[in-house]
Amino acid sequence: METSKKEAFSIQFLQILDVIVILCSAMAAMLAWNVIAPLIDQLGWFKLNLTYYKDVYIIPPIAWGIAPFAPLVLEMFGFYRDQYRRRVLKVVMPVIQAVGVVVACVVILGLLMKSPPPHRPFVVLFIVSSILGLLLRELALQWYYKSKGSDSARRTSVMLVGNTANITEWVDSLPEHSLQRMKIVEKVDLMTHNIEDVVAILEDNHVERAIFLVRDVAFDKVTRAIEACEIQGVEAWVAADFVRARIAQPTFDSINGQSMLVLRSTPALSWAVLAKSLIDRVGAFLLILVTSPFWLLAYIGIKVQSPGPVFYRQERAGRYGKPFMMWKFRSMIMDADKKLEELKKQSGNEMSGPVFKLDHDPRIFPFGRFIRKYSIDELPQLLNVLVGDMSLVGPRPMAVYELPEIEKSEHRRKLSVRPGITCIWQVSGRNTITDFDSWVKLDLDYIDNWSLWLDIKILLQTVPAVLFAKGSK
Description:
With 473 residues, this protein is of the alpha/beta class.
């Protein structure tokens, strides 16, 4: 069966992880032998060369020889096949066979090259620790898949589009593990539904992926449905090869061995995307530690000047519009949300579109204005980054109640990526932007031109923007 790009990427990641597991197993074996060897020497059972084990933190040469080739042999024995929802006992024999073959090959190669042979007790410990390490890694992976599959909120929200017969046939052909990884929110028959129905389903169900099974469906209906997905930044997977897109980048993928044309208008899964996720989590953790004095300052200042809770939570729109609770330090008086409509009537809105903006907002108390000026009120959003709701860099999240007021469907494409704490419009002087169209254009430029270097550049530009309170009021 043909492997999808996501599965191939997952296998590559696991293979790199297994190299690390092998090296860590070698170090664990060395540590264990440094404890056991002196005991055996004291008992006088047989003579040991203890100087060989004088540095427990050096990984032996045999491990460096085995680690790079271990994933290749593991793959040869089928270790990386059918990763999802398999029993750990099923992979015990492939692991034992692969580790045994690799160790035997390296030892034989060492003898042919007349290199000093490793101590046999260490080799035994290394084999045992490698097998246990790989099985523990597999156990952790299956636990992860089980927890992810059992939580419907974590499944990919999928809309199936085509005609009823094709959709039913395709769903029936899918294996159980493929179905468990997706949440089918709607089945749309283009023979009976119009494009307005498709748009409404996309907006109301937080659809992440639309799969088009369009055999025997009129081409013009398929094109309009794909354009609706493209405008909103929803991935379109088409079981066809004749669709041209203006924004989305076409690539091929597969599901259950069937070729699919994928039209993406957002960054595709890659090592750069994985690195962005890693930078987000590690960066958020380090920034929380570094900025902890400002957290204390904000806590004391808010408590002294304004009665009520220190933190403010608001439901914001995450990726594909999925709601999450965003954290901030409270900078406004209590019940500020309830006074918003009254304030709009009295003072108007300096920002066109659904987002509210007003200089000298009377709901902000003096210390709140200070922490806003230097973006200290945004620091708790690092917790949102840490748990994966937000990214360090990305379009600013809109309030959930603002989404129905978005007039242009193309503006919803800003929801197709994970929202961030900072983005282009913030480092370019956000108080000068009063037009919602201009704001969204900057966000879409970021999405269309995304790269890891662009994120790093924006992060570096954010530092002076915060220090000098550039564009903040």
